[in-house]
Each structure stands twice: as C-alpha cells, then as structure tokens.
Design a protein that fits this description.
The complex is a heterodimer of chains A (423) and B (268).
Chain A lengths: L1 H11 L5 H10 L4 H16 L15 H4 L24 E5 L6 E4 L8 E5 L11 H9 L2 E7 L9 E7 L3 E2 L1 E7 L4 E10 L5 E10 L4 E8 L6 E10 L4 E8 L4 E10 L5 E10 L4 E10 L5 E10 L4 E10 L6 E11 L5 E10 L4 E11 L2 H8 L5 H17 L4 H22 L1
Parallel strand pairs in A: 1-5, 4-7, 5-8, 6-9, 7-9, 8-10, 9-11, 10-12, 11-13, 12-14, 13-15, 14-16, 15-17, 16-18, 17-19, 18-20
Antiparallel strand pairs in A: 1-2, 3-4
Helix pairs in contact in A: 2-3, 3-5, 6-7, 7-8
Chain B lengths: L12 E14 L2 E14 L3 E5 L6 H9 L4 E9 L2 E2 L5 H6 L2 E4 L6 E5 H13 L5 H14 L10 E2 L5 H15 L3 E5 L7 H14 L5 E5 L3 H7 L3 E6 L2 E6 L1 H10 L5 H11 L1
Helix pairs in contact in B: 5-6
Classes of the chains: A alpha/beta (423), B alpha/beta (268).
Bound molecules: adenosine-5'-triphosphate (ATP) and magnesium ion.
C-alpha cells in the first residue's frame, strides 16, 4: 500500500531539469553563482524522499494536492497593477512569479535603511525536503530585504506575494541588523483554481533586534500551497511571528523558529478561519538552541461547515539550552458538526532545567451562549460573530495595536463570509 | 371577566399562550415537560409562577423564548401577534425578554460591546457612543453595579448575584413589553434583592407585563404580583393572589397534588 501511495506522489512531482532552471535564471537575470545554486538544489529535489505520511507532520495533508502540475518560465500574464502603498508603510515590495521584485520606499526614508536584493539564497541552509528543494531550485519570485543595523522603522514593510500561474514559488529573505527594529507584513494574495504555491520565508534577527513578521494568507478559492517560515533569533533578539490563514483551499504552513542566541525570545501568534472544504494544516516548531531563551505559541483555529484544522506543534530544547521557558497553546472552535480539528502537541526536551507547558483544546461552539445572545436581540450571525470574536480575543489582545488591527482587518471579512454559509 | 375568556389578540393583552406543550429529546424518544399551559397576561399585570423543583418552570420560560432544543406545540402571542414561529432574536426584538436562571458567560466579549450590539438590535439603530455611555452609566448606577463591570467579559467570573443584577440591568435597557424572569431572586443577598426588585418595578409599567418565577415570598412582597400561579408537573394547577403564596409557605405543595392529578387527567 505504501508503495502505491509513494508512486502516486512521485508522479505528481513536477518535472524539473537543468535547461528549465537555466532558462528561469536567465529570465530573472541571475548570475552564474545563482544558477549553480539552483542546479545543486535540483539534485537534492530529485533525491528528496516523498513526505512521510505515516508521521504526523504529513498525516493530514496529501502533498500531491499542494504540488504544482508543472513549472514554467513564463512571467505572470499581463502587467500587474500596482496596489497603492498603504499610508503607514515604510516600504512596499511586490513579488510576482517570473518578475524581478519592485521596491517602493516611503518618501524621506534615509538612504540605505531598507535595501532590496533580487534573489533570496544567501545564508539559507540547503533544503533536503521535497518542497524546500523545489523552492530552492525553481523559485520564480524572490527578494532579500535588509534593514540596516540600529535602524528603527516607523512603519511596516509590506511584501505582497502574488499567487499566479500554475506555480508560484516565492522566496523571501528578511535580514534585520543588530539592534534594529522592523516590522514586515507578508501578504499572500491572488491565486485561483489550479494555482499552487510553494513558498519559503527566512527571517534573521540580529543581536538585540526586535522583529515583527506577519504572514497572512488570503488566497482566492481554488489555491493550494505549502508555505514555510524559518526565523532565527540571535542573542537577545525578540521575534514575533504572526500567522493568519484565511483563504485558498488547502494550506500547509510550517513555522520553525530557532532561538539561536542566549536571551533570545520568540512568540508565534496564529489565527486560522476556515470554512467550506478548506483545510488549514499548521505546524510550528520552537527550537531552543541556546540558554536563557523563551518561546511562546498561541494558535487558534475556527472551522465552519466541513472545514478542517490541523495543528502539530513541537517544542525542542537542545542539550545546552538550560533555563529556557516554553509555552504552547492551541485552541480550536468548531462551528458545525461536520467541521473537524486535530491537535498534536509534542515536547522534545534534552535539558531538564527548563519550564515547559502546553495545552490543546477542541470544542464545538456553545449553543447556550448563542441562545443567550439571541435572546438579547442579536441575530444568529451577530451572535456567532461575538462568540468567535470572544474566542479569539485573548490571543489578539497579545498583539501590538497596529498588528492587531491588521489581523482584524482580515478576520472580520472572513468571518462574515463564514457566517453567510453557516446561517 | 375571566382572563382566560380574553382573546389573546385583545388590545389589553400583552402576552398569552394557548395549550402550550413542550417536549425535550430523551434518547430516541421525546419527553413531555410542559403539558398544556394557558396563560393570559394583561398590560400592566405582574404574574408570579411558583412550583416545585423540576416541575418545568425553566423549560416553559426557555421554550417561550424559542430555545432551539425544544419542540413546542401551541400558540404564543406577544402584543396581539403570534410569535411561536419566530426565531429567539425576532421574539426579543419584538419585546420578549428572558432573565435566565443561570445566565451564560461569554468569555472574550465585554459587557459594553455586548450591550451596545444588543441595544442597537432592539432599537434598530446604532447608538452614538456618548449617548450609549451615558445611558450605561445611569443603568449601572440604578442597579448598583460597579462601573468597572462595563469592561469585563460578559458574566465571566461574575458571582451569582452579579449575574442576576446584570440581567435586570438588561431588562431596564431593552425595555421589553413582556419579561420572563426565571428565579431572578435566587442567590441574592438582602440588599441585592431590594435593588433587583426595584429594578423590576422600574422596568414595569402600565403597558407591559411580566411573569416572575420564584420559590420565595420575599421578592413577591417587593414586586407585588397581581396574579399568582402554581405550576406542578407541567400544569398550571391553581391561580389566585398573594394569599396563595402564604398558603404555599405554610403547607408546601403536597396539598395541591390532587389538583395536579385532575389537571393531568383532563389533558389525557
Ligand atoms: N433536555 C432535557 N432532557 C431531559 N430532561 C430534561 C431536559 N430539560 C429539562 N428536563 C427535565 O425537565 C424537568 C423540568 O426542568 P426545569 O429546569 O424546567 O425545572 P424547574 O421547574 O425550572 O426546576 P427548578 O425549580 O429546580 O429550577 C426536569 O425534570 C428536568 O430534568
Ligand atoms: Mg428552573
């Protein structure tokens, strides 16, 4: 049986070859070194095992559903319209498959504060997993954003990652220099039937840096994809990763945060709102590689209709990482009897001088709460909106005001459409 | 003229039900809890409903409000119109109110946000923030609830008495035409009982009515009901005035068991 499954996935794996990758690199104007990196990744892509569906990480999602049918070299059709720069933004970057990135900085921003480089390879660990190697070999929209050491950005850097064509393979690298303060909002937009996305984001926070990174997925229906985020926090750095899964059909989001330097802190705050036949499969990993590090995860999912939420979360404390604190919480609210949630928290602790806690809950929406609110004149949709808002409240309350407002600007409309279907 | 002779759509009637039967799911079967209740409340009237534990008082009240887990037969009339096919929020918007025996907590939703949404829904218009704040402050003062409760989560961690006071505060704000008050006096200390009673009296007027479910005479001394009903085993077995309350205080419910049996027989 296992062999049959494996061969099904193997046949779904999109074909890559040297000629295609060279053409892709040429269309993006890459140098010879970049081409060599793609070719090295190609070898790893071809050697990569199929994701192991017996282990929990892939038990709930069929990788074949996320893989693009084919990889091409063509740029996204038509000249993409530029959305206006949000008023508060320090910079806006648009990433379109097959096109060089475009950066627009706010007027008056000192030269060199934010720098953009095409490509996003430097510093990344070579990927050996299927999706990672696919992205590394064949990424078609990439940028490296560098925030100078000591810089304090007044507003966020908005990165709009457009899902288009049969395959969008975005690759983003954010480097925040020592002591700098920066906020990056990475918004995954666009897509449609048969659009597949395999994206990678790297966030490196220098010593003492304060970094806020938000990844919000608001794809159109029909889009499926695998998104991976890796963050690394140097000594005394403070990294907040905010995740929002709202759109598309099937999403697999993996966030791996490494606390690399002593005194580093990482917090992951995630919210998913899914309905219809959507599936949000979220994995987080906090790896404490240094002593005196602290991590916190708070992930909440709301599933309506036949939607599905999956959460697997790992806290890993390395041998030398003494005096760490790690906290993980996952709560799921089911709005219908056909919605489903699975939660698998995991601890892997190699040093005993630590404080760890984790918890997970899955519960249907409380009919008595709805009746109480309805008896006070609220219609069923208003009542459900209040109950869901209340469910999310203590998670959203942990966000800084502007980040909270940003997340709520996606939660509100999504909730409205979920309620349409529920009422 | 006997109230039961009044047509439920008579202009002087604020609330009525006719042959109300309430069933709950009991495994694969249904269980009949409320076994045929006729009730007519005229504008300006306060009715009390007393009955033993488990007789079906809360079931009756929740079913009248439209609780989704009951199957209900019979007519329910509010201000001359049938409301028994309406959703709970539609009944509420037309002026029906239920003060819960056990008010439900909604964590994460502040009292202020909830009340603002509720009032806007009842009045069919958003209420300007400042006007709302003023109205809220007055109502909190009337009910002697500390204003800090405005920013707390709805009923979350409230004491029993605090929950009951907030129920009557909502009654004051929503200005219902007919209120079902399910043991709003249970668990209140002497001062709170007085505040709650005064709140109920303040919310009552010549145009509206209420049905107060209680086990105790004390609140009835404050509220002074016009009509007292005794409810047993799903039936209204006796209707009278305050003298019934004293009789119950003295003798309990047993002496009415025969009437309950007769009521049962006449419905069978
Ligand atoms: N969903 C249900 N399934 C089975 N039995 C139920 C259900 N709901 C209510 N009952 C039963 O119906 C009867 C009436 O309950 P109800 O809560 O209405 O009583 P009550 O008169 O309000 O009592 P109390 O004075 O203790 O508040 C009880 O015997 C109760 O166990
Ligand atoms: Mg009761």
């Amino acid at each position: 049986m296992a062999d049959v499954t494996a061969s099904l996935i193997a046949s779904a794996r999109p074909a890559l070859d040297e000629g295609l990758l060279r053409a892709l690199a040429a269309s993006l104007g890459e140098d010879a070194a970049a081409v060599q990196r793609r070719l090295a990744a190609l070898a790893r892509y071809e050697a990569a095992d199929e994701p192991d569906r017996v282990r929990h990480l892939w038990r709930f999602t069929n990788p074949a559903a996320l893989l693009p049918a084919a990889i091409g070299t063509a740029a996204a059709g038509g000249a993409p319209a530029r959305a206006p720069r949000p008023g508060d933004a320090a910079a806006v970057i648009d990433l379109w498959p097959g096109m060089a990135p475009v950066l627009e900085t706010a007027p008056g921003l000192p030269e060199g504060t934010i720098m953009l480089a095409a490509g996003a390879d430097a510093g990344a660990q070579p990927a050996t997993d299927l999706f990672g190697a696919l992205n590394e070999a064949a990424w078609n929209a990439g940028a490296t954003v560098k925030v100078a050491a000591g810089a304090r950005l007044a507003g966020p850097i908005h990165v709009r990652v457009h899902a288009a064509g049969p395959a969008a393979l975005p690759r983003l690298r954010v480097e925040v220099g020592a002591g700098a303060e920066a906020s990056v909002v990475e918004q995954h937009v666009g897509g449609g039937p048969d659009v597949r996305v395999a994206g990678r984001t790297f966030v490196a926070a220098g010593a003492g840096a304060r970094v806020r990174h938000a990844l919000v997925q608001v794809w159109e229906a029909g889009t499926c994809g695998h998104l991976a985020v890796e963050t690394a926090a140097a000594a005394d750095a403070d990294v907040l990763t905010v995740c929002g899964v709202f759109g598309g059909d099937d999403t697999k989001l993996e966030v791996e945060a490494v606390l690399a330097g002593a005194g580093a802190r990482s917090e992951i705050i995630g919210v998913a709102l899914v309905a219809g036949k959507q599936h949000a499969d979220v994995h987080t990993c906090h790896r404490h590689a240094a002593a005196h590090t602290a991590s916190r995860i708070d992930y909440k999912a709301v599933a309506g209709q036949q939607a599905r939420s999956t959460y697997t979360g790992l806290i890993r404390i390395d041998d030398e990482a003494h005096h760490c604190e790690a906290y993980q919480e996952n709560r799921n609210l089911l709005l219908s009897s056909r919605a489903r949630a699975d939660a698998i928290p995991e601890l892997e602790i190699h040093n005993q001088e630590v404080s760890c806690s984790h918890g997970a809950t899955i519960a249907p929406v409380d009919e008595e709460q709805l009746f109480y609110l309805e008896s006070r004149c609220l219609d069923p949709r208003e009542a459900l909106g209040l109950v869901v808002g209340g469910f999310l409240e203590n998670t959203l309350a942990r966000l800084p005001d502007d980040a909270r407002a940003m997340v709520e600007s996606f939660v509100g409309p999504r909730l409205a459409t979920i309620r349409e279907g529920t009422a | 003229m006997s109230d039961q002779m009044l047509s439920p759509d008579h202009p002087s009637v604020v609330f009525a039900c006719r042959n109300l039967r309430v069933f709950v799911k009991d495994g694969d079967n249904e269980k009949l809890i409320v076994r045929g209740v006729d009730l007519t409340v005229r504008r300006g009237e306060k009715h009390a409903l007393m009955g033993p534990n488990g007789s079906g008082k809360s079931t009756l009240a929740a079913a009248l409000m439209g609780h989704p887990s009951y199957r209900v037969e019979g007519d329910i009339w509010l201000e001359g119109e049938r409301v028994d096919t309406l959703e709970p929020h539609e009944r509420a918007r037309r002026g029906l109110f239920l003060s819960f025996q056990y008010p439900v907590a909604v964590p994460g939703v502040t009292v202020a946000n909830f009340l603002r949404a509720s009032l806007a829904a009842r009045r069919g218009a958003e209420i300007p923030v400042r006007a709302f704040r003023q109205e809220l402050n007055e109502a909190f003062a009337t009910m002697s609830i500390d204003p800090s409760f405005i920013t707390r989560y709805l009923n979350d961690g409230f004491s029993g008495g605090e929950k009951k006071k907030l129920e009557i505060l909502q009654m004051l704000l929503l200005k219902p035409s007919f209120s079902l008050l399910d043991e709003t006096d249970s668990g209140l200390d002497i001062d709170a009982l007085k505040i709650v009673s005064e709140g109920i009296n303040l919310a009552s007027g010549p145009q509206n009515g209420l049905l107060l479910v209680t086990h105790y005479q004390r609140i009835l001394n404050h509220v002074q009901p016009d009509v007292v009903h005794v409810f047993m085993n799903g039936h209204l077995v006796r209707t009278g005035g305050m003298e019934l309350v004293s009789a119950l205080e003295e003798r309990g419910y047993d002496w009415l068991a025969d009437e309950a049996a007769v009521a049962e027989g006449s419905r069978a």
